[in-house]
Amino acid sequence: xxxxxxxxxxxxxxxxxxxxxxxxxxxxxxxxxxxxxxxxxxxxxxxxxxxxxxxxxxxxxxxxxxxxxxxxxxxxxxxxxxxxxxxxxxxxxxxxxxxxxxxxxxxxxxxxxxxxxxxxxx
Length: 122
Hints:
Blueprint: H1 2-15, H2 24-37, E1 43-49, E2 55-61, H3 63-67, H4 70-88, E3 95-101, E4 115-119
Helix pairs in contact: 2-4
């Protein structure tokens, strides 16, 4: 049983990419680009979540986009996806989403108040 457990741990460790990645330069560049391309956005937060595979999460604080129809939010998510592909290139996470929030001046949001749109990154 111990041998099986050890083999399972080794298999799991070799199957996972345990090498840490630094996305700081890409995050800063994407954030600056989003402020230029989307001038009505007052806040941009970007994180790369590595908990269960890599996921790019972009939060846009804009009352205008938050209150816009779903079609407009999908267009913006597609534009963010295109920019992310160009900026992250080889370091691009496998999945992502854009969160639209009404709060423009702080990172604190009411839980469940965001409007998510998926990004097609791969």
